[in-house]
Amino acid sequence: MDQLKTIIVDDSKNIRTELKFLLSEFSELLVTGEAANVTQAIRLIEQQKPDVIFLDIQLQNETGFDLLEKTDVTAQIIFITAHDKYAIRAFEVNAIDYLLKPIKKDRLKKAIDRLIPENKNGDEPHNKVTYDDVVYLMINRSLKFIKVASIKSIVAEGKYSFLQHNEKRKNLASKTLLEWEEILPEKYFVRIHRSTIINFEHVDKVRKCPNNTHEVFVKGVEEPFIMSRRYAAKLKTMLSL
Fold it and tell me: Using CB atoms within 10 A of its CB, is residue 86 exposed (0-12), middle (13-18) or buried (19+)?
């Protein structure tokens, strides 16, 4: 197996030095660069196209989240944090990893093991997210954070799905409809068709059609969704139609 090209992004030189030393014992990874802030990190990512990024959450007046918003990232990311428990909750439910400072060698090994394809367990259980969580996933070939509450609709597209959230345009997401159904809170998200899940908090109105189906109008989405008779009863209960 080829070594995974790795960069370290942390505003502490001591942390970067310590992590680089620890990583030197893992032949699977090759550290090819480091950055202390978002600007340096963007330049490094665009130049090197790394396979792995060790990314600090708190950077000089910015965050690791800001970095992901400012450039396309396709690398696997291991976050580094001292205290951000809310972020840790989001990472856990989305099956990406994080390291708490100070970094411990045994915990680092566990994180690195998860980077290697043959070590990944495809049967790991999916944890439910809450309505206030964020999900972290590949959107249009770039890793992004999406607020669960902002998701309006999800439409199946083979092994992927089209996601509509606060933006008007559809985004191709790296989850199947079944995977979404397993993690989203049932109190807010409901399947209205075998290929469609909607967030009923964003529903504007529901109109009954002559053939006993319904049209579901979602705020900010031009075309209504068709709700099949099979799923109508559940949504009726939730919306008190």
Answer: exposed
